[in-house]
Amino acid sequence: MPLRYLGRLRWCCDARRSLLPLPLRRSSTSSSSARPNQASSGTALTAEEEAAVERIKSSLFKARKGSVEDLVRSLGAECSEIRLTSGVADSLLRRFGDDWKSALGFFQWAQSRGDGYAHTPDTCGRMVDLLGKLRQIDRMWDLLSEMHCKGLVTVDAVAKSIRRLAAARRWKDAIVLFDRLEDMGLERNTETMNVLLDALCKEKKVELAREVFVVLSPHIAPDAYTFNIFVHGWCSVRRIDEAMWTIEEMKKKGFPPTVITYTAVLEAYCKQRKFRRAYDLLDSMSSQGCHPNVITYTMIMTSLAKCERFEEALSVSDRMRSSGCEPDTLFYNSLINLLGKAGHLFEASQVFRLEMPRNGVPRNLVTYNTMISILCQYGRDDDALDLLKEMEAQSCKPDLHTYQPLLRLFLSRRGRGDAVDRLLSELVNKSGLGLDLDTYTLLIHGLCRVAETEWAYRLYDQMVGSEIVPRHKTCELLLSETQRQNMEAYVERIQNDIIAFGLSP
Fold it and tell me: Where are the stretches annotated Disordered (predicted)?
């Protein structure tokens, strides 16, 4: 049954973010950063392809302050002889991070070349997702329309679009897109209905999702996942009674609730600090033959730790082990974090160094990040830096969360600018990362506290040039520091930016 009667909603813009190279301590510009020579498929790029990637990135970086059309023209003037491959395209779209403008400029230039290269459905889907993520919803709609004309629309692309529309508060547009699936050659079936319901529930529009379900259910059969979506949805809006009612409805339809279903309810109880009810439900699950799994126990343990009920949290760990449930990497990550916050650094290190290898549980990026963060909290910077080197030896690529606690630690100490400089150089040139809003904010605030105002301003200039809108407190802090040091040109620029960004109180 058509859903077009639900109409369309206006959408709300978020600040656009982009990740571009950052200035290091002793220079106001930096070269474009490089990531490992690997395409999205896992196949290494050839030397020719990697050279093409770097030339395209360099051209885009030089024109980064222009419009999308300017970027297309720049690429046309400087890169017309480059041979494009799907590896080059996929690698570039992954490296742009949240820089939607550079990604779209490259995307439009590539499809206009007329030299035999054509975007794949996966490439188009990635571009759709990036535009939706950065709230470029009208551009996303235009691209979907183009994909439809070329027969490139996939279920995955539609799923991404529906989720991004819901996240942008354009819920009814998400419904309209679902309603048009058959026009695009796709089916309105249980799978696609679940995508729509899940997107609405994750944005806490559970009642609207229920209305849609009532309209669709006579024509599209629900499955167990459909009901789990609603259980999670009602729990997310703190309506646990409706979640339990959904579980009963689920049973009547012949779908027995699973540990996933009950874990959603347990999590809702934990968020409301109703731990006694959570324990009662745990006992009830076991009596029904639905035994908690490692995810269930990890969630309860983490929730208790957030409430600083550390000893009780550790008792959950003991309960899990006694039940015969085997720990996994996620469990150990939470346990290490819990031990660190409880003041048990030695025990956290023992779990990391001895218990995980002994039980054959692999460490992942989050494991290393958690341990590095704990070591930094205790001022153990040498041990944290050793772990950073160990990650490289284990082929575990660091991310921004790896570097942030180290940057925070060194910024808290006067005279450690060289250490910050080295970390930033490694972040850009070795790890191939760009900065996001949180990391820029951390750096600018930290540098202002240690009187590195010139450096802080260069980072601020890079952030604004990358179309990352600074936070009001960042502008106010930097304005205060530049005024105190009589940096008049900087003061005027920041004051103008505060007005332009609408950050005035």
Answer: 25-46
- DSSP codes, 238-291: T-HHHHHHHHHHHHHTT----HHHHHHHHHHHHHTT-HHHHHHHHHHHHHTT--
Residue 244 to residue 239: CA distance in whole angstroms: 9
pLDDT, tens digit only, all 505 positions of the chain:
444 433 322 222 333 222 223 344 433 333 333 333 444 444 677 777 778 778 788 777 777 777 878 787 877 777 777 777 777 778 777 777 777 877 887 888 877 776 677 777 888 778 888 888 888 788 887 777 778 777 777 788 888 888 888 887 888 888 888 888 887 778 888 988 998 898 889 888 899 989 889 888 888 899 999 999 999 999 999 999 999 999 989 999 889 899 999 999 999 999 999 999 999 998 888 888 888 999 999 999 999 988 888 888 888 888 888 888 889 999 999 999 989 988 899 999 999 999 999 989 999 999 999 999 999 999 999 999 999 999 988 889 999 999 999 999 999 887 788 889 899 988 888 888 888 899 999 999 999 998 899 999 999 999 898 888 899 999 999 999 999 989 988 999 999 888 888 876 6
CB of 495 within 8 A of CB of 479? yes
- What are 44's strand-pairing partners? 38
Q: Is 77 exposed, middle or buried (0-12, 13-18, 19+ CB in 10 A)?
A: exposed
pTM of the model: 0.62
Nearest to 387 by CA among 407, 401, 402: 402
Give the Å distances, CA to CA, from 17 to 94, 189, 434.
Answer: 15, 35, 11
H or E element in which residue 459 lies? helix 453-465
